[in-house]
Design a protein that fits this description.
The complex is a heterodimer of chains A (about 90) and B (about 550). Chain A has helices spanning about 15-25, 45-55, 70-80; strands at about 1-5, 30-35, 40-45, 60-65. By secondary structure, chain A is of the alpha+beta class. Chain A has one domain (about 1-80): HPr-like (Histidine-containing Protein, Chain: A, 2-Layer Sandwich), CATH 3.30.1340.10. Chain A has a 4-stranded antiparallel sheet with strand order 1-4-2-3, with helices on one face. The radius of gyration of chain A is 11 Å and the shape is globular. Chain A starts with a strand and ends with a helix. In chain A, about 35% of the residues are buried. Chain B has helices at about 35-65, 65-80, 80-95, 100-115, 120-140, 165-170, 185-195, 205-210, 230-250, 280-285, 295-300, 310-320, 360-365, 365-380, 395-415, 430-435, 435-440, 450-460, 475-490, 510-515, 530-535, 540-550; strands at about 1-5, 5-10, 10-20, 155-160, 175-180, 200, 215-220, 225, 270-275, 290-295, 325-330, 385-390, 425-430, 445-450, 495-500, 520-525. Chain B starts with a strand and ends with a helix. Chain B has an 8-stranded mixed sheet with strand order 1-8-7-3-4-5-6-2. An 8-stranded parallel β-barrel of chain B has the order 9-10-11-12-13-14-15-16, surrounded by 4 helices. Chain B is globular and about 90 Å long. The longest helix of chain B is centred in the N-terminal third of the chain and has 30 residues, at about 35-65. Chain B has 3 domains: about 1-20 and about 145-250, 3-Layer(bba) Sandwich (Glucose Oxidase, domain 1), CATH 3.50.30; about 35-140, Orthogonal Bundle (Enzyme I, Chain A, domain 2); about 265-550, Alpha-Beta Barrel (TIM Barrel), CATH 3.20.20.60. With about 550 residues, chain B is of the alpha/beta class. Classes of the chains: A alpha+beta (about 90), B alpha/beta (about 550).
Chain lengths: ~90, ~550
């Protein structure tokens, strides 16, 4: 299992388009992908889960990935979260 | 029966009513024992809903463009949502039937999302409702009217038409739209004008008054709707429709010629648009260009501002369609009566005297810069002119030019191309701007008079206020003097003046504006030929004399 902490830098946080892009990308991997914030764990492949988390700019989230393609998933998702364009 | 609404798209339509109702699905909550069968039933309904949504999405992409189709992607994501699915599964295992299991789970997420202090989240809560009611409808075998095979000579009647509904309809068969909600700029109104279908909106409870198959006459010119009218009224309207068609035919001879007054003065005749699709209507009616593209409509009815790329695509499309013809694109004119929830503009005591239009853009420069970048990038695709609204002092132009310079430097660094010689202009719509128009003319390449605001600010009249609207008078000498002053000052400095407010489309006002010396009229696309005919009938020298009488010695 892989784990990484990320601070959200983009203006809207995990809202709107960034949220749906993240969920779409997460859905492309076989691994189980979860996001932790403030003690809540949600499935990163769930748009409703990600949205209801309400993560904003400056919030720290943890991504947990386990599965056969966990390494590719981790690098793709961190790259995405670091470089969200508004 | 005769009903009255807001005329939203011109013309007369006669036809049979098709009432599009939102089904109020009573959700059955029978207990189930065979959990696996119920789960399969749920999965099958989800699959069917996905197919329906994909189909609607494709039609929307074709007819309404990428932006309007994006909402359906959100719907598909919800249907594939694992957290939602798990909750439904749990509920079914407890013995709930698929309908109520889904309803319960959807409500859970709806409640969380709508409790968040965020317009975007509340919209997503609506999406969940939208999608789940589709699935529940499939589960309970409630059929919807098939809009694709709408019979010929139909008049669509609805509480409000959604993009997914208008996208599916065969517009050839639609003779009119009537809706309970909406105004002149609602989705229905714009689609109607784009396809030149008569429309009346804002009629209270039309869907409960009208039944399928009722014979309707709708008059999109004055907003009247007749339900099952007498034979004599039908005759009369058939005659008027014939007359309208004949007049339209007659006006076609003006299509290819440039507008000139009786005494040979050339007047440029261009169109106002609010939507990319309206470009086609403008061209079809022989407009020489776009005199006003109201970009705020790109920002409305959504939950986040359009990205630079999306704006760029919209501006580029209009410019390419127009070819060498000039296109005046006005930057965001928001505030006043037009608000946008996601911009978080604080409530103001006096929005019309508050932080609107250019003032808002100068206050929220990030927003403004994105629009300017998109405009500059689009500038290489046609004859672009950029116009700034609500200017009231020189400093606003200087600041705007500063920001424009910054944007250019950014683009240079990124090696992005833009045109070097596009014109910039301003709206003259405050008395202050008209009075200092000699100074403003030093700073810009053209003026466009926004008569609606100029009249309201000069005469101190809110014309939506019934108690004072009788004072709204475009012929008030104060208004005419300000227009004349603006035109004279502009001409002294060698720049041109257009008028893009409602008075430019008003056939009684056209001769007056010509007499005042205006160079260009920008009118609604469907009015171009009518106004052109009026210009040909006008003698500009004679009108000048009339004006002298109206405004006195200045």
């Amino acid at each position: 299992m892989l784990e990484v902490k990320i601070v959200l830098k983009n203006q809207t946080g995990l809202h709107a388009r960034p949220a749906s892009i993240l969920v779409t990308e997460a859905g492309k991997f076989k691994s189980d992908i979860y996001i932790l914030k403030d003690g809540r764990e949600i499935n990163a492949k769930s748009i409703l889960g990600v949205l209801s988390m309400g993560a904003r700019k400056g919030d720290e989230i943890t991504i947990k990935i386990s599965g056969e393609d966990e390494e590719q998933a981790l690098s793709r998702l961190t790259e995405l979260l670091e470089n969200f364009e508004e | 029966m005769t009903l009255k609404g807001i005329p939203a798209s011109e013309g007369i339509g006669l036809g049979r009513a098709i009432v599009i109702r939102e089904s109020d699905s009573e959700i059955s909550n029978t207990q189930v024992t065979d959990i696996n069968t119920e789960l399969d039933r749920f999965l099958a309904a989800v699959e069917r809903a996905k197919e329906e949504i994909k189909e609607i999405k494709e039609t929307a992409q074709r007819n309404l463009g990428e932006k309007n189709a994006m909402i359906f992607d959100a719907h598909l994501l919800i249907l594939e949502d694992p957290e939602l699915f798990n909750m439904v599964k749990e509920n079914i295992s407890k013995g709930m039937n698929a309908e109520s299991a889904l309803d319960e789970s959807a409500k859970f997420f709806e409640t969380i999302l709508s409790s968040l202090e965020d317009e975007y989240m509340r919209e997503r809560a609506n999406d969940i409702r939208d999608v789940t009611s589709r699935v529940i409808k499939i589960l309970s075998h409630k059929e919807e009217i098939d809009l694709k095979s709408i019979p010929s000579c139909s008049i669509a009647v609805a509480r409000e038409l959604t993009p997914s509904q208008t996208a599916q309809m065969d517009k050839q068969n639609v003779r009119g739209f009537v809706t309970e909600k909406g105004g002149k700029t609602s989705h229905t109104a714009i689609i109607a004008r784009t396809y030149e279908i008569p429309a009346v909106v804002g009629i209270g409870d039309i869907t409960s008054v009208v039944r399928d198959g009722d014979f309707l006459i709708i008059d999109g010119n004055d907003g009247t709707v007749y339900v099952n009218p007498d034979e004599s009224i039908i005759r009369e309207y058939e005659k008027r429709l014939e007359e309208e068609t004949r007049k339209k035919e007659e006006l076609r001879k003006f299509l290819q010629i440039e507008a000139r007054t009786q005494d040979g003065r050339r007047i440029k005749l261009v169109a106002n648009i609010a939507h990319v699709d309206e470009t086609d209507v403008a061209l079809k009616n022989g407009a020489e260009g776009v005199g006003l593209f109201r970009t705020e409509f790109l920002f409305m009815d959504r939950t986040e501002p359009p990205s630079e790329e999306e704006q760029f695509q919209a501006y580029k499309t209009v410019l390419e369609k127009m070819g060498e013809r000039p296109v005046i694109i006005r930057t965001l004119d928001i505030g006043g009566d037009k608000s946008i929830p996601y911009l978080n503009i604080p409530k103001e005591e006096n929005p019309f005297l508050g932080c609107r239009a250019i003032r808002l853009c100068l206050a929220q420069q990030d927003l403004f810069k994105v629009q300017l970048r998109a405009l500059l990038r689009a500038s290489v695709y046609g004859n672009l002119k950029i116009m700034f609204p609500m200017i009231s002092c020189i400093d606003e132009i200087i600041q705007t030019k500063e920001i424009m310079k910054e944007v250019k430097t950014e683009l240079d660094k990124e090696d992005v191309k833009y045109s070097e010689d596009f014109e910039i202009g301003i709206m003259v719509e405050t008395p202050a701007a008209a009075i200092i128009s000699d100074m403003l003319a030093e700073e810009v390449d053209f003026f466009s008079i926004g008569s609606n605001d100029l009249i309201q600010y000069t005469l101190v009249i809110d014309r939506t206020n019934d108690k004072v609207s009788y004072l709204y008078n475009p012929l008030h000498p104060a208004v005419l003097r300000l227009i004349k002053l603006t035109v004279d000052n502009a001409h002294k400095k060698g720049i041109e003046v257009g008028v893009c407010g409602e008075i430019a489309s008003d056939l009684n006002m056209v001769p007056i504006l010509i007499g005042l010396g205006v160079d260009e009229l920008s009118v609604s696309p469907s009015k171009v030929l009518n106004v052109k005919k009026k210009i040909f009938e006008t003698n500009s020298e004679k009108e000048k004399m009339t004006i002298q009488k109206l405004v006195g010695t200045m």
